[in-house]
Structures are given as C-alpha cells and as structure tokens.
Amino acid sequence: MEHIVSVQFDYYLGLIVLFPLLGAIINGVAGPKLPRRFVHWIGCSAIGLSFVFTALSVHGLYLNAHEGDHGPVYGSIVYDAYQWIYSGGMELDIAFILDPLSAVMLLVITGVGLLIHIYSVGYMKEESGVWRYFCYLNLFCFAMLMLVLGKNMLVTFIGWEGVGLCSYLLIGYWYEDDSNAIAGQKAFIVNRVGDFAFLGGLFLLFYQAGTFDYVELYQYATTAETARLLAPVALPAAILIFIGCTGKSAQIPLYTWLPDAMAGPTPVSALIHAATMVTAGVFLIARLHFLFTFNPTIGYVVATIGTLTAFFAATIAVVQNDIKKVLAYSTISQLGYMFMAVGVGAFTAGIFHLMTHAFFKALLFLGSGSVIHAMGGTQDIREMGGLKEWMPYTEKTFLIACLAISGFPLFAGFFSKDLILWNALTNVHILSVPEAASSATIATLINSTSPVIESGGAVDVTTWASAFHWGFYLMGVLTAGLTAFYMFRLYFLTFRGECRADEETREHLHESPPSMTLPLCALAFLSLFGGWTGWPHFIPKGVPKWLGFGGHGHGGHGAPEYLDWMLGFEHWLDEAFVLSTSHRFAPLFGSHPYTQELIATSVSVAVALSGIGAAWAIYLKNPGLPKEIADSVRGLYDVLMNKYYVDEVYNRVFVQGSVKIGSFMHTFDEVVIDGVLVDGLAWFVEQLGKILRHLQSGNVQRYATYIVLGIVLFALAIRYYQYF
Amino acid sequence: MADPTAILGTMTALGAALPSASSFPWLTVITFGPLIGILALMLIPRDQTDLLRNTALLCTLGVFVVSLGVLVHFDPSVVAESGQVFAFQLTDGPVEWIPALGIHYYLGVDGISLWLVLLTTFLGPIVIYSTYSSVDEHVKEYMICLLFLQIGMVGALVSLDVFLFYIFWEMMLIPMYLIIGVWGADQRIYAAVKFFVYTIVGSLLMLIGILYVYFETGGAGGGYSFMFTDLAAVDLTYNEQFWLFAAFFLAFAIKVPLVPFHTWLPRAHVQAPTAGSVILAGVLLKMGTYGMLRYAFPLFPRALKTFAPYIAIVATIGVVYGALMAMVQDNIKRLVAYSSISHLGFCVLGLISMTPQGLAGGMYVMLAHGISTGGLFLAVGILYERRHTKAIEAYGGVAKSMPIFSAMFMIVIFASAGLPGLNGFVGEFLSLLGTAKSHFLWFDQPLVFAPESVLDLSATSGEGGIAFGGAMQGLPVDGQVTPEMTAYLFALVAATGVIWAAGYLLWMWRRVMFGPLDKEENRNLSDLGVREILYMLPIVLMALFMGVYPKFFLSRMDPTLNDFLQHMKTEVEREIPKSETTQGDDPETVPPARGTVIVEEPNDAWVPDRPMFDEDIREADDEE
Fold first, then answer.
1. Closest Cα partner for B232 from B482, B570, B593, B579?
2. Are A637 and A441 in contact (CB under 8 A)?
3. SS3 of B616, please?
4. Cβ-defined contact of B420 to A673 (cutoff 8 Å)
5. Do A296 and B197 touch (CB under 8 A)?
6. Which of A367, A594, B235, B510 is the 20 to 30 A CA-CA neighbour of B425?
7. Nearest CB to B327: which of A296, A465, A659?
8. For A208, which of B434, B482, B554 is closest by C-beta distance?
9. Prediction ipTM score
10. What confidence tens digit (pLDDT) does each residue in B385-420 have?
11. How far is B217 from chain A (nearest CA, A)?
12. CB of A403 closer than 8 Å to CB of A428
C-alpha cells in the first residue's frame, strides 16, 4: 500500500466516477423530454464508458506491476480531484485510489452494472417515465464507484450514504403503493442506524490518527510508535464501523430491511441488493483490514455475526414462498459467509466470494425477473412449476446459478465458498496461539514475522479459539447444505414438475426478449468460469506433481504458467492483505496442508450434493411431502415462516417506542415547559401586576398613607443602620 | 479541473465593475439599501400591488448583487493583529455618532459575518418573490416590513459598535412581530406576543450586561466607549464574567432557541406566513448563534469554560428532543420548526467544542440550515397555497401530481437530513467531529478501552516491549491522547440525530408525497409555475453547491475562526491573578484549568491568499 505510482492516466479514475453522474444528471434533468430510446442509450452508455475506462485503468495497473518479496506488486494509482473539506489539521480531498482491491470491486460494479442496465431496457419496457429509473440507476453506480474508489473514509462515506439514497429511491420506485414506500423508508432508516455507528467509529479513529486517508491510516497502524496509540481504540472503533457494515450489508442485527427491499424492480434487486451495495460492508472491512486484525476479538465478533447470519437467514429461506424473498434471504446468508471470511482474516476469500456471488446472485435475480415478467407479476413459487418448457434460456442459466451458489464442483461458488470454509477452520490469529501470544509485541503485529508463522508448521491454538473456528466451519458447512437445499427447492418448484399456473397466465408464458436473455447468458458464463481463478491449492500445487510436472514454485518461479493463473485471484490480492497474511494470521495445519484441504473440499461437495438430493427427493419426487413435513413441525415452521418475529419485535420496541416517547415529550413540552414554566411565569407577572396596580389607584388618601409608611420605614432604617 | 472559485469570480464581474474596495462604503450600502426600496414603496399607491412587489424584489435583488461585491473584495488572508479578537475588513467608520456617550457608527465584516450577511441578502429576494401569490392584503405594509427586517438583520451582523448592534438587534423584532401578528394564521396574536415578549426579556438582560461592560471601559482614564474592540479589551474578573456571560447567553439562547427556551418557536412558525417562517428560520435564529460567537464567547472566555459542559448538555438534549418532537407532529410546519431546534443543537455543540472543526461545523450548520430549512418552509408554503392546510394527513401521493416540485422538495429534504454531497452533511459532520475531539467539555477523563492494570503495567515497560498477555489487551496512553469520554459521548448522543432526522423527514415525506393518490383534492394539484421554480431553484442549487464544494465557504472563514480560537486559548489558559481568587466569596468557584481550546493553523494550500477580485492585479493588467 505504501507503493503509489503516478501514471499518465490517473484522471481515468475521475472519469470512471463522472460518467454515471453525467448520465444521471442528463436523464434527471432532460429525461422527461427525451425519447425513450435516448434515455436507454444515455443510461447504458454512461455505465458502459465507465466500464471501458475501468478496464483500461486496471490494465494499466496490471502492466505497472514489478516483482516484490511476496510476488508481483501492483501498487496503486491515485487521483486527487479537488480539496473538499479542510479544517485545522483535518484535510479531506475528493480523491480516488485504484489498487488491486478496488480494481476487483470496480470491475464487478461496472461489469455487472452494465449487464443489468441492458437487462433493464427489456424489463422496464412497459413502464412509463423510465428516465427516472435510469437516472436513479446511474446515480447509484456513481455512488457505488465513489464508495470503492475513495482514497479516504469520507469519500467512501459519501458513496456509502449515496447508495443508501439510491436504494431508497429505487425500492420506492413504484411509490404509489404504500408498502413499497414503507420498504424504502425502512431501508434508509435502518441503514442510518448503521451509519450512526459508522460515524462514531470515524470520530474515534480520527481522534487517534488525525486522518481519514486510507494510505495514511495504514502507515499510522503499521508504524510502531503510532500503532501503539491506535491499539486502545482499535477494538471500539472497529466494532462501531462493523455495526455500520451490518446495516449496509444486512447482517444481524440490522438485516431486516433487505427482504422488504425486494419491493423494488427486480434488476434493482440484482444490482443493488445482491451484487454491489450490500457487499460494501465486506469491502470496507477489507479496506480497513489493518484495523480489523489488530485485535483478535474484533475478528471473532465479525465472524460470529457472519456465521450466525448465514445460518439463520438460510433457515428462513427454506420456507419462503416468494421467489424474490428466497433470494433475499439467500443474499443475507451469502453475505454472512463473506463476513465469516473477513472475520477470520481471509480477506482474499471474502472478496473472491463477493465477486462470484455478484455473478451468480445477479443471475438468479435477473432470472427471477425474467420469470416474474413472464408470469405477469406473480412472485409466488406455489403458482409456478414446469416453466422449463416455456423459458429454456432462463431455465438453463438459472440452473447454472443454482449449481454455482450450491457449491457444485467447478462452478464459481464452489471455489469461493470452499476457500472461505477452509479458511474459517484454519486461519487463526497469532494472538490466539499461546506460543506466539506469549512473546508478541506490537512489532509482531505490524512488521516482523512471528516465528510461529515462519516455521510453517502446524500450530496449537487456545481451546476457545479452536472452538470458535470449528464452530464457524461446521455452521458454514451446515449452511452450505441448507443453501443447496433451498436453492434447488426454488429451482424445482419454479422450473420443474407440473405447471401450477392458471390458464390465463399459462397462455402468456413466454421467453424474455434478447435484451434480457443476453445478460443472463453473460452472467451464466461468469458463474461457470468466474471462479477458475482461485482453485483450491491442492489442485494446482498437488496435481501436477502427481502427473509428473514437478514444480510448485511460489509466484511462478519455474512453474508452468497455468499454475499461476489458476491461483490468479489470490496473487492479484496478495499484496493488498500481505500485512494480515504474513504477520497476523497463522495456518492451523501448517503451510502446505494439501491432504486436509482435499478432505475439507470433499466434505463440502458431499454436503452440497446431499442438499440438492434432498431437495430433489422432497420437492420433485414426492410433491406431497413438503406439506407433511411442515405439519409435523408446525411450531418451528411458523417461527421460520414469520422470520423469527424479529420484524415485529423491532417494530414494537424501536419504532413504536420512539413514537411513544415523542408523544410523551410533546405533551411534556406543551404542558410543563410551555404551560407551567413559560405561561406560568407570564401568569405570575400578571398577578403581580394586579396586586401592584393598587399602589396607583388615584386615591389621595392611600397615597398619603404610603408616604407616611415610607417615611417611617426610612427613619427606622437610618436609626438601625449603624448597628449593622 | 477548473477552479470553481475562478468561475464564480468571473460571474460576479459586477463586483469588479463597481468602485474599488477602499472608496466604496459597501456595508453601508448593503445595510441601508432596502431603505431606498422602502421610500419608493411609500410613494407607490397601495392598490398597485404588482408594482409594489416588483419594486421590493428589485430592491432586494440589487442589494444581493451589491453584497456580492463584499464577497469579491473580501480578503480571506487577513488575520487579526495581536491583542485583537477579530480582523474586520471593508470597514465603514468609525464615525462618532453620539460622542458624549462614546457611541460610534462602525461597520465591518470578517469571515464569520461575511457569510451570514450573504445568506441574508441571498434569501431576501427569494422571500419577496415567494410572497407574490401568498399575500394579497396590505401588500405595501408587508413589503415594507420585510425590507425593514432585512435592514435590521444585516445591520446587526455588520455593526462593530455594541450600541449600534443592540439597536439593529431590537429593530428586527418589530417587523417580525408585525409579520406574524398581521399576516399570520388564526392564532397569530398569541404567537406574535409570545415571540416578542420572550425575546425581549432576553434582550433586556443582555442590555444590562452591555451597560455593565460599557461602564468598565472608562476605567483607565479614557472616555466610555461602546466599540466592540474597546469592550473586548476590558479586563473582567471571573465573577463578573460569570454573571455577564449568563446574561448575554440567555439572550442568545432564547433566540437560537436552545431547549428549554424554545417554546415560542413552533408557535411562531406555525402562525407566521411563509416568508416570515423562511426569514425566521433562515436568518433570525442564526442571530443567536452569531451573537454567541461574536459577543458572549470572546468577551467572557473564562466563564465560558465553566458553562461549556452545561451548554453542551443542553445542546445535545436539544438535538434529540427536537428530533423526537418533530417525529410526532401532524403539522408539516410544526415538524420543520422542531427540526430547526434539532439542527441548531448541532450548531451550538460545534461552537462550544472550541476546536477548529467544531467551529467551522457550527458556522456551516448555520448557513446550511438557513438554505435547507428555508427551502423546506418554502415547499410547505407551496403546498399550503394549493390545499390551504398544513396537516400531513391531508396529503398523500402528491409526487404523482407535482413531479417537479417533488424533485426539488426531495433535494431539500435530503439536504436537511444531512446526506453527504448536500449542504447539511458538511456542517453536521464537522460539528460532531469537533465535539468528539474537544478538550473543552468537562473533565479530562481519557477514553481508554483497556483494564486499568494494563495501563499501569505498560507505563513502566520499556520501548517496544509491550507484551500481549491475552487476546484483549490495551496499550499505553501518553497523557491526553485519547478522547475525553464526555466530549465523545456528547458527539455520540448528538450523532443519533442522523437517525432521527432520517426518521421524521422521510416519514413525513412518505405520508405527504408518496403513497396512493387517494384524496380527490390532491389529484389535480398544479405543478410548480415558472415563478415558483425561479425561487426554489436557487435554494436547491445552493444546497448542492455547498455540499459539493464547501471549500468556497469554509476556506474564507477559517482564518477568522483561527484568530478566534487563538484568542480563546490565550484567555482560557491565562493564569488567574491571586488577588482575584481570594476576592470572591468562595475560591472554589474559580474553575481549575482543565482542558483547553484546540488551535490548529489552517493549511496554506486551503485558504486563498487574496480577495477573489484583486485590485492590484487588475491595475497590473490595465497597464499591460
């Protein structure tokens, strides 16, 4: 991160952000007057240009690489747009940074974003006033790009709140329906709760470090003298920022807005509520990895929340009947995996899953959009079934996505989810290794490699840490099984079996136009091959050896080129997280545990297959079985169906609570402050005046009395004054 | 990219065409400019309402254009001489007005008043333009009142003689009283009287305070003087400062208003006509915070140190209290009124933090609130003119029938809710940030998240040898390196305001603008006309500009704020003479000097080193 290159095309970063903003402005101002075709072109070309310049910039970054200690070093490209807020010692620029981490995010946002824009042209065909939609969508891309490109936390925060705004606007796109408007409002306010905590964390961090700049913060956290000052606030600051992330990324306890957010148009759900915005929290933690790995407690909190969210959301998803709700809970669950990954210090795995998830979840949502489109707006899977017949492209791509998310071998999700589960089990913070912790100093965490890591052997961790890691792993595997089950439940109920739709709907069933199926195919391609840049290590390292190829050199010394390529994703991000991998985390089974890795992979594949098998057996083979099962565990089923009643509790406690307090305060304000105190004072003055006015009655005899009284008092005063 | 400052500089070329800074009495012209309009209005027959309105509009527009001249001639790089609190520029005077009493006519601006003056002149024409359709009775008097009000507001901001300031200060009350009392809603008389009596009680306390300080100025053999610089030079004992601060602060706290002195505000807002509300929220409330910054804080710094934590408590309560109250209102205007209380809580909290960020934030909240709340009241006025009700439940689905209005209203709403990229965020963020790092609020309990024993242990251990005993360990703290717990908690509690603001604003928005268009009356609401767009658009654009490019504003106030902080730091840290501590009845009343003002020099690359329009450069260009 210390390596910053200045290159000729740094202003490309500005352009990447600018194009969507311009698109939003043009469509927002002139949209109502423009012909529909123009609106489409402006919206799509804005994000398209952004994509082109992203590709050029990332290519430039790639060419910029030079060999470092840990493989290639790409450095970063920085572009300062202008001075935003300076005040005293605080300096905030609108500045952007492109490094391997933001490069991945950028490609996902602009790439998937472009496909979804194109899809939207077909999907929103029957809507009037589509300019508003494209304006918001471009604005969203602008905000999201700000978020990931920001060189300081405040630029990220601009994007952070900006995506919240666009999410609000797009969820409530059909605002005539009160429930959509309520869903949008809920999303924004719940996110604001997270943002509040985020701000709290920012203040704490700024107080200590005096800067919001990521590069400067990194230096602050990795210099012995300053890191020591940061240590006391690392835990609270990181936890507060993490609460912000739970809001944006829909984790426990702030996940409740995401299922409701499905009220928006389906492409919006695909882009915002699956592929990009909701992953912002994962990205932010990866960005601040030097802070989040400072103290093992932070990691365990993050990973625990992630694991619990993954599991509970998956259980809810099993019983939902709305196609988009299933996908929504599935998104929450998958985001839980990502948090599990970044919690255990496997940032590369988290970002990898973020990318593959963007592919297959966007595909799932777009596929469901295609289905909803064909069904004339119905979202209930109980009224679907057998759609394979009418929608071949949608069905095939949807199947690919289901296989990918279930972790079926060679599909994208398999690689990333496997990497997360493997890391959840084996990636341990060195401070939870007693051997390392006993001799650890602040330097161990920032610039010197602990002997425990150096040795490359297996390590012993404390019992509680071991319990946590096994917990993450087992819950993760269990959730993987549930995921395979509910995804194939969805697939079978929607596309296979008997068609349960009524006659009228059935007549209208049709495959979607090419503007919708083409993005589906592109995403299906990515869901299939997008993960092939991150194979489990035992394959590229172990397999060639068995086959007699020999070399498994690190970073490509003497090894065949394809071996590097098979671990390309890891190599690309190596440099970004080198601090964590080389100083702060140790592998539980030592550095080359290919056998254990093979076992772990086999376990996840077996679990995924049994999940798929169970779904097949229950929903396709015996269509009557689901009802029987539901009846036999009615209580549990109801709890799941009602999403553990969390919404109801939140509503009762927080929403109604605030309103009640407000009402009480209102009464207090009117009666006590204004009534008793203010008006009371006025009343008192009035009464006093009523009494005192008798002094000036115009009655001469009274005046004479007052004069005499006055004289007497005066005389007495003089008489006794000397005795004071 | 092109420097927006330069673009704006060329846009205000009118300023350059006018006479040079030194020879032209800018401030006098701006202050008394509306007087020309008033005279003109007096000569126009009362039944020619269009002419009356246009004259007033033209007059305020003219004043606004001239005030841009102040902006282009203002030199941000000027700093106060040693011993002075503020560096005033473009001064008119001092001219002796009543020599026998030491009263002068003396006007000037610095980085603090400059922007408030511009805010006032900016809102002036907008407000007048907005009344074209809303007021049809007594148009002549109405316009005269509005113009008179503007004289009072600008005068109070630019006067450097405290007596003059007091005259302008009271002068604002009368037209506002009339605006509420004559053109207001049903309960206008009650609201107007409450507003008038409440504020004047505070003002009188301040008058007593002013007189007390005034009589101290003559001590050194010279004559008495009301000049601000002379008042600031008076050396007051702590006990004197204590009571004087209380008197001044109460006057300003009522004006702001801080909870619990706020009850006049919602009533006044609900009853006032739209124009009255806009000015009341936009400028009049800022007179309270401006007064604190200009008078109460620098004149009585050591008393301020004692009061600061209590003021911070009140301000923090105000943020949450105002927001909670706003949430349960069923009247849109009342809701906006309570939101003002919440926003000004941020402002006061920032000002009281005595950090560069907090001060800049407090100032920015004043400006941003003036724009965004002004916009909110205008929007409410637009709705009211169409439906003649301010009840939230009467609306619903209006976004469908009024799309242009809804776009503008939405931007203003989000500006008010503090969305980054719009103006509200910059101020709130800076205020809270400044508060969080403040050393000025209460005890210096450091904020450390580690067991006490670890701290002790680490204090003795040598360099680089801090062992991690377990998973959750803290590391050493050298003196005051972590935030004051109290200050941070104030910031954190106030930061909940971002949640509340989203809550009450979006809830209102949803009930008014979203949802089904199920009420017959709302179905045919006409969208904004050209005139309405013309007065809403500057507000919306300004909200955007202030959020996107705050440098334009902040960089021109930073040197002044730095001077101010420098002064406060010297005063607060000054050793208290022994004689003074023994003089009081109770020596304990002198606060121990714990915590202090944080001064940080503004970055040179940030503050412009010369006026936007530099005469030397123009002359040099002419010679070529």
1. B570
2. no
3. helix
4. no
5. no
6. B510
7. A659
8. B482
9. 0.90
10. 998 899 999 998 898 889 999 999 999 999 999 999
11. 34
12. no
In this predicted structure, the answer to whether residue B16 has a pLDDT above a threshold of 60 is no
Which residue in chain A is spatially nearest to B507 when comparing CA positions? A185
Nearest to A443 among B329, B464, B502 (CB): B464
In this structure, the strands spanning A66-68 and A4-5 are unpaired
Predicted local confidence at residue A6, as pLDDT: 52
Mean pLDDT value across residues B489-512: 92
Quick check: A402 and A494 in contact, CB under 8 A? no
Listing DSSP states for A170-185 in one string gives HHTSSTTSHHHHHHHH
- Start-to-end CA distance of chain A, whole Å, equals 81
**Res. B464 pLDDT band, cuts 50 70 90:** very low
Nearest residue to A289 via CA among A338, A330, A238: A238
SS3 (DSSP) at A467: helix
Contact state of B420 with A83 under an 8 Å Cβ cutoff: no
Chain A hits for B430, Cβ within 8 Å: 85, 87
Residue B269 has pLDDT above 70, yes or no: yes
Residue B335 · residue B508 · CB < 8 Å: yes
- With beta carbons under 8 A apart, name residues in chain B contacting A666: 325, 328-329
DSSP string, A233-262: HHHHHHHHHHHHHHHHTT-TTS-THHHHGG
Joined tokens for residue A461: 């961790």
Q: Which two tokens stand for residue B186?
A: 């049903």
Q: Which residue of A has its CA nearest to B334?
A: A666
Across the interface, do A658 and B483 touch by the CB < 8 Å criterion?
A: no
Q: How far apart are CA B598 and CA B467, in angstroms?
A: 34
DSSP code for A671: I
**B91 closest CA partner among B163, B18, B27:** B27
Asked whether B270 and B390 are in contact (CB, 8 A), the reply is yes
Measure CA of the first residue to CA of the last residue in chain B; give whole Å.
Answer: 28
User: What's the gap in Å between the CA of B436 and the closest CA on chain A?
Assistant: 6
Point out the residue among B260, B492, B513 whose CB comes nearest to the CB of A200: B492
- The 3-state secondary structure of B218-273 reads HHHCCCCCCEHHHHHHCCCCHHHHHHHHHHHHHHHHHHCCCCCCCCHHHHHHHHCC
pLDDT for B214-231, tens place per residue? 888 875 556 788 888 888
For B474, name the nearest residue in chain A, comparing CA atoms only: A232
Whether residue A678 lies within 8 A of chain B, CB to CB, comes out as yes
Phi, psi of B74 (to 5 degrees): -70, 130
B116 contacts B157 by C-beta, under 8 angstroms: yes
Residue B526 in this model has a pLDDT that exceeds 70: yes
Question: Measured between beta carbons, which residues in chain A are less than 8 angstroms from residue B478?
Answer: 229
Interface of A with B in 227-246 (CB under 8 A): 228-229, 231-233, 235-236
Dist. CA B58–CA B44, nearest whole Å: 14
- Given the structure tokens 């011993």, which residue do they identify? B83
Q: Rounded mean pLDDT of B286-307?
A: 90
Q: Is the bond leading into B260 cis (omega within 30 degrees of zero)?
A: yes
- DSSP letter for A457, please: S
Residue to substitute from A87, A438, A663, interface B, most B β-carbons within 10 A: A87
Which of these, A29, A171, A50, A184, lies nearest to A114 by C-alpha position? A50
Query: Taking CB atoms and an 8 Å limit, are B502 and A663 in contact across chains?
Result: no
Distance from the Cα of A429 to chain B's closest Cα (Å) equals 10
| Of the partner residues A84, A192, A440, the one whose CB lies closest to the CB of residue B498 | A192
Q: What whole-number percentage of chain B has pLDDT above 70?
A: 84
The alpha-carbon gap from A217 to the nearest alpha carbon of chain B, in Å, equals 16
CA dist A3 and A76 (Å) reads 7
